[in-house]
Design goal:
The structure is a single chain. With 341 residues, this protein is of the alpha+beta class. The chain folds into two domains: 10-198, Fructose-1,6-Bisphosphatase, Chain A, domain 1 (2-Layer Sandwich), CATH 3.30.540.10; 209-340, D-Maltodextrin-Binding Protein, domain 2. 28% of the residues lie in helices and 22% in strands. It has helices at 10-17, 27-48, 70-86, 222-232, 250-260, 279-292, 323-336; strands at 57-61, 67-69, 89-94, 101-102, 113-121, 132-140, 162-168, 172-177, 182-188, 193-198, 209-211, 243-244, 263-266, 296-298, 318-321. Strands 4-3-5-6-7-8-9-10 form an eight-stranded mixed beta sheet, sandwiched between helices. α1 (10-17) runs antiparallel to α2. It is globular and about 60 Å long. The termini are far apart. The model has no long low-confidence stretch (mean pLDDT 91). The chain binds 6-O-phosphono-alpha-D-fructofuranose. 6-O-phosphono-alpha-D-fructofuranose binds at residues 121-122, 124, 213, 248-250, 253, 276.
Length: 341
Amino acid sequence: MGAVSGITTLGQFIIARQKDFPYAKGELSRLLRDISIAAKIVNREVNKAGLVDILGEMGLMNVQGESVKKLDVFANEQFISALSYGGECCGIASEENEHIVGIHSEISKYANYVVAIDPLDGSSNIDVNAPIGTIFSIYRRVSPYGPAQLCDFMQKGTEQVAAGYVMYGSSTMLVYTTGKGVNGFTLDPSIGEFCLTHPDMVIPQMGNIYSINEGNYKFFPEGVKRYIKYCQIEDEETNRPYSSRYIGSLAADFHRNLIKGGIYMYPATAYSAKGKLRLLYECNPLAFIVEQAGGKASDGFQRILDIDPYALHERTPLFIGSHDMVEMVEGMMLEYSSRVD
Ligand code: P6P
Protein backbone atom coordinates (compact mmCIF):
# COMPACT_ATOMS: atom_id res chain seq x y z
CA MET A 1 0.00 0.00 0.00
CA GLY A 2 1.33 3.45 -0.82
CA ALA A 3 3.13 4.87 2.22
CA VAL A 4 1.76 8.40 1.98
CA SER A 5 -1.71 8.49 0.48
CA GLY A 6 -2.87 4.90 0.93
CA ILE A 7 -2.81 4.74 -2.87
CA THR A 8 -0.66 2.18 -4.65
CA THR A 9 0.25 3.37 -8.11
CA LEU A 10 1.07 0.98 -10.95
CA GLY A 11 4.70 2.05 -10.78
CA GLN A 12 4.93 1.38 -7.04
CA PHE A 13 3.18 -1.97 -7.49
CA ILE A 14 5.49 -3.10 -10.31
CA ILE A 15 8.57 -2.22 -8.26
CA ALA A 16 7.18 -3.92 -5.16
CA ARG A 17 6.45 -7.08 -7.18
CA GLN A 18 9.90 -7.11 -8.79
CA LYS A 19 11.00 -9.41 -5.96
CA ASP A 20 8.76 -12.07 -7.56
CA PHE A 21 11.41 -12.30 -10.28
CA PRO A 22 14.77 -12.88 -8.55
CA TYR A 23 16.73 -12.64 -11.79
CA ALA A 24 14.81 -9.68 -13.14
CA LYS A 25 16.92 -6.59 -13.58
CA GLY A 26 13.92 -4.30 -13.88
CA GLU A 27 13.60 -4.75 -17.64
CA LEU A 28 10.04 -6.13 -17.53
CA SER A 29 9.08 -3.46 -15.02
CA ARG A 30 10.31 -0.75 -17.36
CA LEU A 31 8.52 -2.39 -20.29
CA LEU A 32 5.20 -2.38 -18.39
CA ARG A 33 5.86 1.26 -17.50
CA ASP A 34 6.38 2.13 -21.18
CA ILE A 35 3.07 0.47 -22.08
CA SER A 36 1.24 2.34 -19.32
CA ILE A 37 2.62 5.68 -20.53
CA ALA A 38 1.36 5.05 -24.06
CA ALA A 39 -1.99 3.94 -22.62
CA LYS A 40 -2.35 7.29 -20.81
CA ILE A 41 -1.66 9.18 -24.04
CA VAL A 42 -4.16 7.06 -25.97
CA ASN A 43 -6.68 7.53 -23.16
CA ARG A 44 -6.32 11.30 -23.47
CA GLU A 45 -7.13 11.16 -27.20
CA VAL A 46 -9.96 8.62 -26.75
CA ASN A 47 -11.57 10.97 -24.26
CA LYS A 48 -11.25 13.86 -26.71
CA ALA A 49 -12.32 11.77 -29.72
CA GLY A 50 -15.71 13.43 -29.84
CA LEU A 51 -14.14 16.88 -29.82
CA VAL A 52 -11.06 16.68 -31.99
CA ASP A 53 -11.07 15.80 -35.67
CA ILE A 54 -9.53 12.36 -35.22
CA LEU A 55 -12.81 10.55 -35.67
CA GLY A 56 -14.07 9.06 -38.81
CA GLU A 57 -12.39 6.91 -41.35
CA MET A 58 -9.17 7.87 -43.06
CA GLY A 59 -10.30 6.01 -46.10
CA LEU A 60 -7.41 3.62 -45.44
CA MET A 61 -7.65 -0.13 -44.95
CA ASN A 62 -5.54 -2.05 -42.40
CA VAL A 63 -3.89 -5.41 -43.06
CA GLN A 64 -7.15 -7.05 -42.02
CA GLY A 65 -8.96 -5.28 -44.84
CA GLU A 66 -10.94 -3.27 -42.28
CA SER A 67 -11.41 0.47 -42.66
CA VAL A 68 -8.94 2.25 -40.39
CA LYS A 69 -10.10 5.03 -38.14
CA LYS A 70 -7.70 7.77 -37.17
CA LEU A 71 -7.62 6.72 -33.50
CA ASP A 72 -6.43 3.26 -34.55
CA VAL A 73 -3.50 4.82 -36.32
CA PHE A 74 -2.78 7.19 -33.45
CA ALA A 75 -2.87 4.41 -30.85
CA ASN A 76 -0.62 2.17 -32.94
CA GLU A 77 1.90 4.99 -33.33
CA GLN A 78 1.89 5.73 -29.59
CA PHE A 79 2.55 2.15 -28.51
CA ILE A 80 5.20 1.57 -31.16
CA SER A 81 6.90 4.83 -30.22
CA ALA A 82 6.83 4.17 -26.46
CA LEU A 83 8.17 0.64 -26.94
CA SER A 84 10.77 1.69 -29.53
CA TYR A 85 12.34 4.32 -27.28
CA GLY A 86 11.88 2.52 -23.96
CA GLY A 87 14.90 0.31 -24.62
CA GLU A 88 13.37 -2.93 -23.31
CA CYS A 89 11.65 -4.17 -26.49
CA CYS A 90 13.34 -5.38 -29.68
CA GLY A 91 10.22 -5.89 -31.78
CA ILE A 92 6.45 -5.49 -32.02
CA ALA A 93 3.68 -7.45 -33.74
CA SER A 94 0.67 -5.18 -34.14
CA GLU A 95 -2.78 -5.81 -35.58
CA GLU A 96 -2.23 -2.64 -37.58
CA ASN A 97 1.00 -3.82 -39.23
CA GLU A 98 1.19 -6.66 -41.74
CA HIS A 99 4.76 -7.55 -40.72
CA ILE A 100 6.62 -7.37 -37.42
CA VAL A 101 8.13 -4.01 -36.51
CA GLY A 102 11.78 -4.71 -35.74
CA ILE A 103 13.35 -2.06 -33.51
CA HIS A 104 16.79 -1.10 -34.79
CA SER A 105 17.87 1.53 -32.29
CA GLU A 106 21.18 0.86 -30.57
CA ILE A 107 19.55 0.68 -27.14
CA SER A 108 16.96 -1.87 -28.25
CA LYS A 109 18.86 -4.31 -30.38
CA TYR A 110 19.98 -6.17 -27.23
CA ALA A 111 16.57 -5.89 -25.54
CA ASN A 112 15.16 -9.16 -24.23
CA TYR A 113 11.43 -8.75 -24.88
CA VAL A 114 8.95 -8.59 -27.75
CA VAL A 115 5.37 -7.31 -27.62
CA ALA A 116 2.31 -8.47 -29.55
CA ILE A 117 -0.44 -5.86 -29.40
CA ASP A 118 -3.87 -4.87 -30.60
CA PRO A 119 -3.47 -1.13 -30.05
CA LEU A 120 -7.16 -0.29 -30.25
CA ASP A 121 -9.54 -3.21 -30.33
CA GLY A 122 -13.23 -2.58 -30.92
CA SER A 123 -12.48 0.57 -32.88
CA SER A 124 -15.83 0.31 -34.65
CA ASN A 125 -17.21 1.51 -31.29
CA ILE A 126 -15.18 4.75 -31.36
CA ASP A 127 -17.87 6.79 -33.10
CA VAL A 128 -20.61 5.60 -30.77
CA ASN A 129 -18.68 6.25 -27.55
CA ALA A 130 -18.77 2.58 -26.50
CA PRO A 131 -15.78 1.13 -24.60
CA ILE A 132 -12.66 0.20 -26.60
CA GLY A 133 -9.46 -1.50 -25.53
CA THR A 134 -5.76 -2.21 -25.97
CA ILE A 135 -4.67 -5.83 -25.56
CA PHE A 136 -1.01 -6.84 -25.25
CA SER A 137 1.21 -9.85 -24.75
CA ILE A 138 4.92 -9.92 -23.76
CA TYR A 139 7.43 -12.69 -24.56
CA ARG A 140 11.15 -13.10 -23.97
CA ARG A 141 12.89 -13.13 -27.35
CA VAL A 142 14.25 -16.44 -28.68
CA SER A 143 16.44 -14.93 -31.45
CA PRO A 144 20.02 -14.10 -30.38
CA TYR A 145 20.08 -10.28 -30.66
CA GLY A 146 19.30 -7.43 -33.02
CA PRO A 147 15.82 -6.48 -34.21
CA ALA A 148 13.20 -9.12 -33.43
CA GLN A 149 12.49 -11.89 -35.91
CA LEU A 150 9.28 -13.77 -36.72
CA CYS A 151 10.39 -16.70 -34.53
CA ASP A 152 10.22 -14.43 -31.48
CA PHE A 153 6.45 -14.21 -31.99
CA MET A 154 5.77 -17.82 -33.02
CA GLN A 155 5.74 -18.95 -29.37
CA LYS A 156 2.86 -20.70 -27.60
CA GLY A 157 0.77 -18.62 -25.23
CA THR A 158 2.23 -20.63 -22.35
CA GLU A 159 5.54 -18.81 -23.02
CA GLN A 160 4.14 -15.35 -22.27
CA VAL A 161 5.95 -13.54 -19.43
CA ALA A 162 3.19 -10.93 -19.08
CA ALA A 163 -0.13 -9.96 -20.62
CA GLY A 164 -2.67 -7.23 -20.09
CA TYR A 165 -5.38 -5.02 -21.43
CA VAL A 166 -6.44 -1.41 -21.10
CA MET A 167 -10.13 -0.64 -21.21
CA TYR A 168 -11.07 2.92 -22.18
CA GLY A 169 -14.58 3.11 -20.74
CA SER A 170 -16.51 5.10 -18.13
CA SER A 171 -13.18 4.90 -16.36
CA THR A 172 -9.91 3.71 -17.84
CA MET A 173 -8.46 0.54 -16.37
CA LEU A 174 -5.27 -1.42 -16.90
CA VAL A 175 -5.41 -5.10 -15.92
CA TYR A 176 -2.34 -7.31 -16.19
CA THR A 177 -0.59 -10.47 -15.05
CA THR A 178 3.03 -11.61 -14.93
CA GLY A 179 1.99 -15.13 -13.94
CA LYS A 180 1.55 -14.26 -10.26
CA GLY A 181 -2.17 -13.42 -10.25
CA VAL A 182 -4.17 -10.63 -11.88
CA ASN A 183 -4.34 -7.03 -10.69
CA GLY A 184 -6.44 -4.11 -11.92
CA PHE A 185 -5.55 -0.42 -11.87
CA THR A 186 -7.86 2.53 -12.49
CA LEU A 187 -6.54 5.73 -14.01
CA ASP A 188 -6.97 8.73 -11.71
CA PRO A 189 -6.90 11.63 -14.18
CA SER A 190 -6.35 14.13 -11.37
CA ILE A 191 -2.89 12.69 -10.72
CA GLY A 192 -2.33 10.94 -14.07
CA GLU A 193 -1.60 7.62 -12.37
CA PHE A 194 -3.03 4.12 -12.67
CA CYS A 195 -3.97 3.24 -9.05
CA LEU A 196 -4.52 -0.26 -7.66
CA THR A 197 -8.27 -0.75 -7.35
CA HIS A 198 -8.76 -4.48 -8.07
CA PRO A 199 -6.06 -6.50 -6.27
CA ASP A 200 -5.81 -10.26 -6.87
CA MET A 201 -8.73 -10.54 -9.32
CA VAL A 202 -10.50 -13.92 -9.41
CA ILE A 203 -13.24 -14.83 -11.92
CA PRO A 204 -16.26 -16.65 -10.43
CA GLN A 205 -16.11 -20.35 -11.31
CA MET A 206 -19.68 -20.12 -12.58
CA GLY A 207 -21.58 -17.14 -13.94
CA ASN A 208 -24.92 -16.32 -15.56
CA ILE A 209 -23.84 -14.03 -18.39
CA TYR A 210 -23.16 -15.22 -21.93
CA SER A 211 -21.64 -12.95 -24.57
CA ILE A 212 -21.88 -13.81 -28.26
CA ASN A 213 -23.07 -12.16 -31.48
CA GLU A 214 -26.27 -14.15 -31.88
CA GLY A 215 -26.80 -12.53 -35.27
CA ASN A 216 -24.45 -15.24 -36.56
CA TYR A 217 -26.52 -18.01 -34.97
CA LYS A 218 -27.33 -19.85 -38.17
CA PHE A 219 -23.61 -20.10 -39.02
CA PHE A 220 -22.48 -21.50 -35.64
CA PRO A 221 -21.39 -25.11 -35.07
CA GLU A 222 -24.16 -27.29 -33.61
CA GLY A 223 -22.41 -27.46 -30.23
CA VAL A 224 -22.55 -23.67 -29.89
CA LYS A 225 -26.20 -23.58 -30.92
CA ARG A 226 -26.98 -26.19 -28.25
CA TYR A 227 -25.11 -24.17 -25.60
CA ILE A 228 -26.94 -20.95 -26.50
CA LYS A 229 -30.25 -22.79 -26.14
CA TYR A 230 -29.03 -24.21 -22.79
CA CYS A 231 -28.35 -20.62 -21.59
CA GLN A 232 -31.88 -19.61 -22.55
CA ILE A 233 -33.81 -22.47 -20.91
CA GLU A 234 -35.58 -21.59 -17.65
CA ASP A 235 -34.18 -23.54 -14.71
CA GLU A 236 -34.23 -21.93 -11.27
CA GLU A 237 -31.69 -24.33 -9.78
CA THR A 238 -29.00 -23.25 -12.24
CA ASN A 239 -29.98 -19.55 -12.42
CA ARG A 240 -31.17 -19.88 -16.00
CA PRO A 241 -32.05 -18.23 -18.31
CA TYR A 242 -28.68 -16.46 -18.24
CA SER A 243 -28.36 -12.81 -19.25
CA SER A 244 -27.11 -12.05 -22.74
CA ARG A 245 -24.59 -9.19 -22.65
CA TYR A 246 -22.58 -8.25 -25.76
CA ILE A 247 -20.91 -4.85 -26.19
CA GLY A 248 -19.04 -5.82 -29.34
CA SER A 249 -15.75 -4.78 -27.73
CA LEU A 250 -13.67 -7.75 -26.57
CA ALA A 251 -11.84 -5.97 -23.74
CA ALA A 252 -15.11 -4.60 -22.33
CA ASP A 253 -17.03 -7.88 -22.61
CA PHE A 254 -14.08 -9.80 -21.16
CA HIS A 255 -13.63 -7.31 -18.30
CA ARG A 256 -17.28 -7.47 -17.25
CA ASN A 257 -17.25 -11.27 -17.27
CA LEU A 258 -13.94 -11.34 -15.36
CA ILE A 259 -15.55 -9.34 -12.54
CA LYS A 260 -19.09 -10.78 -12.58
CA GLY A 261 -18.52 -14.24 -14.04
CA GLY A 262 -19.66 -15.29 -17.50
CA ILE A 263 -18.51 -16.59 -20.85
CA TYR A 264 -17.51 -14.76 -24.05
CA MET A 265 -17.70 -16.76 -27.26
CA TYR A 266 -16.49 -16.00 -30.76
CA PRO A 267 -16.84 -19.38 -32.51
CA ALA A 268 -15.76 -20.62 -35.89
CA THR A 269 -18.60 -20.16 -38.37
CA ALA A 270 -19.60 -21.72 -41.66
CA TYR A 271 -17.95 -18.78 -43.44
CA SER A 272 -14.94 -18.32 -41.16
CA ALA A 273 -13.39 -21.61 -40.08
CA LYS A 274 -11.14 -19.93 -37.49
CA GLY A 275 -13.61 -17.31 -36.31
CA LYS A 276 -12.59 -13.64 -36.23
CA LEU A 277 -10.27 -13.05 -33.26
CA ARG A 278 -6.49 -13.08 -33.48
CA LEU A 279 -4.45 -15.60 -31.48
CA LEU A 280 -1.30 -13.60 -30.80
CA TYR A 281 -2.62 -10.26 -29.59
CA GLU A 282 -6.23 -10.89 -28.57
CA CYS A 283 -6.79 -14.50 -27.47
CA ASN A 284 -3.42 -15.46 -25.92
CA PRO A 285 -3.11 -12.42 -23.63
CA LEU A 286 -6.70 -12.74 -22.36
CA ALA A 287 -6.27 -16.51 -21.98
CA PHE A 288 -3.18 -15.92 -19.79
CA ILE A 289 -5.12 -13.43 -17.67
CA VAL A 290 -8.25 -15.56 -17.31
CA GLU A 291 -6.27 -18.67 -16.30
CA GLN A 292 -4.35 -16.62 -13.73
CA ALA A 293 -7.76 -15.51 -12.40
CA GLY A 294 -8.98 -19.13 -12.17
CA GLY A 295 -10.94 -19.21 -15.43
CA LYS A 296 -10.54 -21.09 -18.70
CA ALA A 297 -9.87 -20.26 -22.37
CA SER A 298 -10.40 -22.71 -25.21
CA ASP A 299 -10.83 -22.83 -28.97
CA GLY A 300 -13.70 -25.20 -28.31
CA PHE A 301 -11.47 -28.27 -28.26
CA GLN A 302 -8.08 -27.30 -26.80
CA ARG A 303 -6.51 -24.79 -24.41
CA ILE A 304 -5.79 -21.50 -26.19
CA LEU A 305 -2.35 -21.22 -24.55
CA ASP A 306 -1.30 -24.59 -26.01
CA ILE A 307 -1.91 -23.56 -29.63
CA ASP A 308 1.30 -23.60 -31.66
CA PRO A 309 1.21 -20.41 -33.77
CA TYR A 310 1.97 -20.59 -37.51
CA ALA A 311 1.25 -17.03 -38.64
CA LEU A 312 1.38 -13.53 -37.17
CA HIS A 313 -2.27 -12.67 -37.71
CA GLU A 314 -3.78 -16.12 -37.43
CA ARG A 315 -7.27 -16.37 -36.04
CA THR A 316 -8.77 -18.82 -33.57
CA PRO A 317 -12.23 -19.50 -32.21
CA LEU A 318 -12.44 -18.29 -28.60
CA PHE A 319 -14.47 -19.48 -25.62
CA ILE A 320 -13.24 -17.65 -22.51
CA GLY A 321 -14.42 -16.89 -18.98
CA SER A 322 -15.76 -18.80 -15.97
CA HIS A 323 -14.15 -22.23 -15.80
CA ASP A 324 -17.33 -24.32 -15.54
CA MET A 325 -19.09 -22.43 -18.35
CA VAL A 326 -16.20 -22.93 -20.79
CA GLU A 327 -15.96 -26.57 -19.77
CA MET A 328 -19.67 -27.07 -20.54
CA VAL A 329 -19.52 -25.56 -24.01
CA GLU A 330 -16.40 -27.67 -24.77
CA GLY A 331 -18.44 -30.74 -23.83
CA MET A 332 -21.22 -29.70 -26.20
CA MET A 333 -18.75 -28.93 -28.99
CA LEU A 334 -17.32 -32.43 -28.57
CA GLU A 335 -20.74 -34.06 -28.44
CA TYR A 336 -22.50 -32.20 -31.26
CA SER A 337 -20.02 -30.97 -33.78
CA SER A 338 -16.86 -32.19 -35.54
CA ARG A 339 -13.88 -29.83 -35.55
CA VAL A 340 -14.39 -26.79 -37.83
CA ASP A 341 -11.00 -26.54 -39.59
P1 P6P B 1 -18.74 -8.86 -34.32
C1 P6P B 1 -14.04 -5.81 -32.47
O1 P6P B 1 -13.95 -5.65 -33.89
C2 P6P B 1 -13.77 -7.26 -32.18
O2 P6P B 1 -12.49 -7.59 -32.62
C3 P6P B 1 -13.93 -7.54 -30.70
O3 P6P B 1 -13.53 -6.46 -29.92
C4 P6P B 1 -15.41 -7.82 -30.57
O4 P6P B 1 -15.73 -8.65 -29.48
C5 P6P B 1 -15.73 -8.50 -31.90
O5 P6P B 1 -14.75 -8.07 -32.83
C6 P6P B 1 -17.09 -8.11 -32.42
O6 P6P B 1 -17.28 -8.81 -33.65
O7 P6P B 1 -18.57 -9.78 -35.51
O8 P6P B 1 -19.67 -9.44 -33.28
O9 P6P B 1 -19.08 -7.44 -34.68
